[in-house]
Amino acid sequence: MKTALITGSTSGIGLGIAKEFAKTKQYNVVFNGLEANGQEIADAIAKEYGIQTMFSNANMLKAEELRKMVDEAVSKFSKIDVLINNAGIQHVSPIEDFPDEKWNAIIGINLTSAFYLSKAVWKGMKERKFGRIINIASAHGLVASEFKSAYVASKHGIVGFTKTLALEGAPFNITVNAICPGYVKTPLVEKQIADQAKAHNMSESDVVSKVMLYKQAVKDFVSLETLGQTTLLLASDHATTITGIAMPVDGGWNAQ
Ligand code: NAD
Q1: CB 61 within 8 A of CB 108
Q2: Suppose 55 and one of 13, 42, 46, 76 were both cysteines; which one would form an S-S bond, judging by CB atoms 3.0 to 4.6 Å apart?
Q3: Of residues 27, 151, 183, 214, which has the active-site annotation?
Q4: Is 11 in the pocket of ligand 1 (CB under 6 A)?
């Protein structure tokens, strides 16, 4: 059995990826997130798929908690083979009103936490000559949209971080890649739909078709299964020569 640690996996994309990993029965899964029912989610998935799981509510803004989560996972499962840096937040605002504390939280959660965690798992991966680090960036890791300055900066940042670690990991069979999803219907996006409908005085369905999916050629949300399967591919033994990429899974948004 391999072990996958997935941050922000008690909601949305992280939970979707965790389920795809659990279904293979080849991974134990370390769950993480701030949702109050995190332990119940981890227990339910262990029972449903017959794998072992654990849960940690380590806060992405606290380096000590992140290091403790890695130590606990290593003492339970002996190693971490796959690290998926997925936890993330968003805040939408014109630059002149953008709150300083939101900027710092977005950079801390979306970018700096990946630095702390990659650093914490690196030594073990290097010794075992196997490691897979997969960063859930965004289409906004490749292009910008207005009013998302901190988010776009954090996601472009993680794409650069991905490339750097790919170079450092290459001699040790540690691959490091980013996945850049378009819109996925998760709590993070549902909140944006509601906020934008209010801000633009539009219906929620108009926000989806005229604002959100406007930039995607495929006028559909990206599914959790698609992201889970893409992540599994990058995590596999065969993916040794796929490293340092920022892979759009965005319905053609970046093709334009
Ligand atoms: P979500 O809100 O459903 O889930 C986010 C997860 O991160 C939750 O489990 C939450 O508890 C956790 N989290 C947030 N702050 C944390 C903190 N300080 N410490 C620990 N955990 C924390 O959001 P989602 O849509 O599933 O987003 C997951 C990732 O995918 C994010 O990095 C996001 O930027 C990225 N993404 C989302 C979309 C989309 O359309 N939903 C598109 C592209 C990229």
Answers
A1: yes
A2: 42
A3: 151
A4: yes
Position 231, amino acid: T
How many angstroms separate the alpha carbon of residue 88 from the centre of ligand 1?
Answer: 4
Residue 250 CB–ligand 1 contact under 6 Å: no
Task: Please give the distance, rounded to the nearest whole angstrom, from the Cα atom of residue 169 to the centre of ligand 1.
Answer: 26
- 141 in ligand 1 pocket by Cβ < 6 Å? no
Residue span(s) of the chain under CATH 3.40.50.720 come to 2-183+222-255
Residue of minimum CA distance from atom 34 in ligand 1: 88
In what side-by-side order are the strands of the sheet with 131-136?
53-56, 27-32, 2-6, 82-85, 131-136, 174-181, 246-249
Class of domain 2-183+222-255: alpha beta
pLDDT tens sequence across 196-246: 888 888 999 999 998 889 999 999 999 999 999 999 999 999 999 999 999
Question: Is the separation of the CB atoms in 255 and 217 below 8 Å?
Answer: yes
Say whether 27 is catalytic. no
- Residue 107 Cβ < 6 Å to ligand 1: no
